[in-house]
Amino acid sequence: MINYNKLRDAIKNIVDESPGSISVTFCDLDEGEKFSINGNKKSPSASMIKLLIMLTIFKKVELGEINLNEKIKLEDENKVDGSGVLKELSCEHLFSIRELLTLMIIISDNFATNILIDKVGMDDVNKLGRELKLLETSLERKMMDVGAKEKGHDNYTSSEDVASILKMIYEKSFLSEEMSSLAIDILLRQQERDRLQRYLPEDLKIASKSGDLDNLENDGGIFFTEAKNYILVVLVSGAESNVAAKEIIGKISLEIYKNIGE
């Protein structure tokens, strides 16, 4: 039997001993137990905002407003630096919305993300966030939009909001079973595994999405383990370095994993 009060105290100790601002939300998907540390604290989302963009796309697919097989041509106006591979390709290439969505999640492609923001509309992404009561989550600019950021516009979320999104996907409570299963399949193919999975077995199944900025690292995922399934979201900002932030996330994740397996 897991002592969740003891587990929370152990995580709180890690948070208190670590530099920077840290938010943690944990949810046992089998027993319904949950705890948060600074869970409702608003923090720059970095690429974790792409989870809400994905949710918006899938909902529009269900409503018949978007076809995942529709092809879109790469346009120079959406080409940006940062993570991804599309920026290296000719703008004559055609990609389906399904392919762009997959690239947005598994390698956090910023070019693909900006194309999809244009497709669904920033207002609709934020409208869905409000409908789902994601109180600290907002999309205020495209990826790598330095000008908008200099004007005070940024993208935000909280560990509670990210956990809520992941729980909706896992429980298939918002999207259809087909779209929820597709979302999990894409998240399971995540290529960035050096945060939550940093100190865990390489073959552990985690459906996850991460994000990073200078001295900021975020990661959240659905863990499928032999003992139980659970959600863990950790947001770290103001760390000494990005490597240090990743190590904090890895340490918290390892503590949870060890306790779950006992």
Using brief descriptors, characterize the structure shown.
Beta-lactamase, five-stranded antiparallel sheet, 9 helices, 262 residues, alpha+beta, two-stranded antiparallel sheet
Structural overview:
The chain has one domain: DD-peptidase/beta-lactamase superfamily (Beta-lactamase). It is 41% helix and 19% strand. The chain contains nine helices and nine strands. The strands form three sheets. It has a five-stranded antiparallel β-sheet, with helices on both faces. A two-stranded antiparallel sheet has the order 3-6. A two-stranded antiparallel ribbon has the order 4-5. β8 (216-224) and β9 (229-237) form a beta hairpin. The chain is globular, with a radius of gyration of 18 Å. The model has no long low-confidence stretch (mean pLDDT 94).
Number of helices: 9
CATH superfamily: DD-peptidase/beta-lactamase superfamily
Quickly name the level 1 CATH class.
Alpha Beta
Count the beta strands.
9
Shape: globular
| Cα Rg | 18 Å
Overall CATH architecture: 3-Layer(aba) Sandwich
Briefly note the structural class of the backbone: alpha+beta
Spell out the helices and strands N to C.
HEEEHEEHHHHEHHEEEH
How big a fraction of the residues is strand? 15-25%
Main sheet makeup: 5 strands, antiparallel
Which range best describes the helical content: under 10%, 10-25%, 25-40%, 40-55%, 55-70% or over 70%? 40-55%
* Tally of individual domains: 1
